[in-house]
Amino acid sequence: MNPYQALHEKAFWKPAVASKHAFDIGGLWDPKFNIQPADKVATYGSCFAQHIGRSLKSRGYGWLITEKTPAGLSSANKTKYNYEVFSSRTGNIYTTSLLRQWTDWALGGAVVPKECWEENGGFFDPFRPAVEPGGFGSRAELEACRSHTIECFRKSVEESAYFVFTLGLTEHWTHKGGSFEYPMCPGTAAGTFDPVVHQFGNHAYQEVREQFLQAAQIMRRVNPALKFLLTVSPVPLTATMSGEHVVVATMHSKSILRAVAGQLAADYDYIDYFPSYEIINSPCFRGMFFEPNLRSVNRKGVEFVMDSFFHCLGATFGQPTPLRAKKKGRTVAADKDVVCEEELLGSFSKQGNPS
After folding, report:
1. By Cβ atoms counted within 10 A, which residue in 167, 201, 250, 264 is the most buried?
2. What percent of the chain has pLDDT over 70?
3. Please, what's the largest Cα pairwise distance for the chain?
4. How many angstroms separate the CA atoms of 115 and 198, rounded?
5. Using CA atoms in the order 226, 231, 237, 240, what is the torsion angle rounded to 10 degrees?
6. What's the rounded mean pLDDT across residues 101-109?
7. How high is the pLDDT of residue 331?
8. pTM above 0.70, yes or no
């Protein structure tokens, strides 16, 4: 007799994986939290986080939007101008240090840097360079809009029961003198790159972990009941400044993020981890969830991830009654339909990036 003999079949590769069709592989998540349709859920992070918010909404769950779309704005322009992409109009928050920065501005009393990028008659926000195509009409408009988003970010923390955050990158760009971080390298989405001022970095495990914990602790001071659900984006890097091959750099970055997310979930009862990264990238799914460019996640992959999410919730806690009926027809988007500033980096390749 040994302890392996008492384990469930999911603990063994042959019955859990090799003996099953890929679409029959299940039970990949044991959720900690009984997320109910009436619960308010805030979503932020890397590009893949957008699928979670949309899927919550389509299935009648309480995706919390604190920065509403202006009346009369078309559906196409709503996405183009970054409304209802995340719970507020922050743009992509790729790193845990960027999450800490937004949290400090909204809840910690930190002052937002005065930096502003002006080009072609438009004013661009260094911390949300792609939220306003063509730029704002003035610095005052930019600052007022950003202040509103910071307030909406604060409200999303105060009002939500769950805060979903998708970790995307370890690579990042900072201002050498100002001790603040940009979501994109200056000179890509907007602005001008200056090697004297702008500095590349690549977070190690401990930095990723500590930055998230510091942000979470600040949030829980204003909302002590807040719980966190972490995911890791399965989308490879568009480009890397690490000096490594982009395949190696991607595995390095994602391995750190996955290890951090899993350890945080193991260490804290108010943090859980959902394995969207494994579902898309595991060899048992044979790469079938990627588009031909081997980077973008296709619609079937997104559907399988989100079906797994809700199936595991139902298997653990029972099937809740949605607040409204599930919409018919298309309820999820492929990665090519989400807002992802990092994809702009592909255009700086010598061969370009037509895909």
Report:
1. 167
2. 90
3. 76
4. 13
5. 50
6. 96
7. 52
8. yes
What per-residue confidence (pLDDT) applies to 32?
98
At residue 41, does pLDDT exceed 90?
A: yes
For residues 218 and 104, give the distance between their C-alpha atoms in angstroms, rounded to a whole number: 8
Token code pair at residue 80: 């183009």
Over residues 89-111, mean pLDDT: 96
CA dihedral of 16, 17, 18, 23, whole degrees rounded to 10: 120
Confidence of residue 329 (pLDDT cuts 50, 70, 90): very low
Rounded to the nearest integer, the mean pLDDT of the chain is 92
| Separation of first and last alpha carbons in the chain | 55
Q: What is the torsional sign of CA 129, 334, 19, 319?
A: positive
| Number of Cβ within a 10 Å radius of residue 126 | 21
pLDDT of the residue at 355: 39
- The Cβ-side half-sphere exposure at 256, using a 13 Å CA radius, reads 20
Mean pLDDT of 288-292: 94
For residue 354, the model assigns a pLDDT of 42
